[in-house]
Amino acid sequence: MDARERLRIYLEQRRDMGESELVLDSMPVDDVLRLIADQGTAPVRGSSAAASKSGSATPPRSEAPEHPANWRDALSSIGAESPHAGASERATAKPKPVAPPEHTELAAPALPAAGLVVGSAAREPLPGHISALHSLDELAKHVAACQGCSLYKTAKNPVPGEGNPHAGFVCVGEAPGQTEDELGRPFVGRAGDLLTKILEAINFKREDVFICNVLKHRPPGNRNPAPDEIKACSPYLLRQLELLQPRVILALGTFASQTLLQTTTPIGKLRGQIHRFHGIPLIVTYHPAALLRNPAWKRPTWEDVQLARRIFDSAAQG
Question: How many whole angstroms separate alpha carbon 250 and alpha carbon 309?
Fold first, then answer.
């Protein structure tokens, strides 16, 4: 796959996550995609239908296009401008010679420093009735009958979690919201749709991972979980992680991150580190619902989930 095709896929992923501008070139994503399509590399989504209506078609090129070695050269080759170049410089600039792609491989960036450590890799003692649960389905049935705290009295449905029972990647949120409570499923609605897109951007389908919350019943009015509620639900989460044995945990949002890591440190300071939760690498990022309120957090979230994917891949290789 050449640099232009990689750039096209990358831009589409960023657009699906709600971004409309590229910081380095100050061009709308759709404009860059359209320029790529005009160069004959790949169509912009929906462009084929527009072409058929107008009756026009892009003629085939007489010779094979040159393959830029990196995304900056790919942007330059399709007319994208750098915000750091002056107008006269952009007008007279000539493309620099590009080395063959096979000579431009860059080493993967170093992993960030280790963060907080909670628990140990050894199994923590759990209540006998929970440690005796041998599958996620058994655990879900037990959650449905749980009266360990008062939340069962006000919740419509338990939300134990869902996903691949052999998942190596686990997303942990705070607690079910109103829609989750009504459907008995975690991360549905607008925030759930965004989480699905975030996972797809790092080449996961929703059904590839396991998604759950710290609490398994909705707190009334979506209030913060109380200490006794966390105490009652934590053994279920620990047992889920024991059964799943994931390679990576992605903690979504301040409350899930602080609860799992047993800290009051702000999420901004917890990001960018590799924490350990009972021996499992844990990466902290913003909750999808927070991204809907503050789109500026989408870029750091993208960095976080890329890190989580790198750790996942490294664990698979090693």
Answer: 10
Query: Which one, of 120, 23, 133, lies nearest residue 71 by Cα?
Result: 23
Check if the beta carbon of residue 144 is closer than 8 Å to that of residue 228.
no
The string of pLDDT tens digits covering residues 133-145 is 999 999 999 999 9
Orientation angle between helical segments 3-16 and 29-38, nearest 10 degrees:
150
Burial of 145 (0-12, 13-18, 19+ CB in 10 A): exposed
Check: CB of residue 160 under 8 Å from CB of residue 140. yes
- The CATH homologous superfamily for domain 114-317 is Uracil-DNA glycosylase-like domain (3.40.470.10)
Distance CA 285, CA 300 (A): 8
State the CB neighbour count (10 A cutoff) for residue 201: 20
Helix, strand, coil % in the chain, rounded to nearest 5? 45, 10, 45
List pLDDT tens digits, range 222-278: 899 999 999 999 999 999 999 999 999 999 999 999 999 999 999 999 999 999 999
DSSP SS3 for 126:
coil
Q: Report d(CA 63, CA 286) in Å as an integer.
A: 47
- The token pair at 61 is 């090129």
Report how far Cα 213 is from the mean position of its chain's Cα atoms.
Answer: 16
CA 66 to CA 39: how far, in whole Å?
Answer: 11
- The domain ranges of the chain are 3-103, 114-317
Average pLDDT for 277-282: 94
Residue with tokens 């040159």: 66
Which of 94-100's residues contact partners 24+ apart within 8 Å by CB, and which partners?
Answer: 98/66, 98/68, 98/69, 98/73, 99/69, 100/69
For the chain, give the longest Cα–Cα distance: 75
Which has more confidence, 63 or 258? 258
